[in-house]
Amino acid sequence: MQFDKETQVRILRVAADRIDGRPIGEVDARIAHIMDMHPEFEESWQLGEMAVYPQEINGQIVNPFVHTVLHVIIDTQLNDGNPEIVPSTFKKLMDQGMTEHECLHGIIHSYADIHFSSFRSGKPFDHLDYQSRLKALSYDDVE
After folding, report:
1. Domain residue ranges in the chain
2. In sequence order, what are the beta bridge partners of 62?
3. pTM of this prediction?
4. Averaged over 22-32, what is the pLDDT?
């Protein structure tokens, strides 16, 4: 999943389907599940295209679109087992007593930090740095 217009349209469609109670296809069910993890974004999704812009939610500036895309990226890595370090890190964090959502956010934080710094500097994503960060990630880092 990319941070592009096609993805915006898809995520906004899933959000509208959820809001209107329409059935959600199997392919989009993971997006809907991620939206279910974030009830604080519900009002944002009702804004339609405005949900792709940063907003103040619960006292923090958040971009619901970007946050959801990051969740989908990590969810895909976890389910595909690619890179292998993602499911092993997820399991390690779960074994340390974290919730599913806390584990995902810990991994998302590492991925997003590398992704956005790479993007800003015009460099490719550093997979070795990602692997190294996930290998070192622990419950104490995510709290």
Report:
1. 1-61, 81-143
2. 55
3. 0.90
4. 92
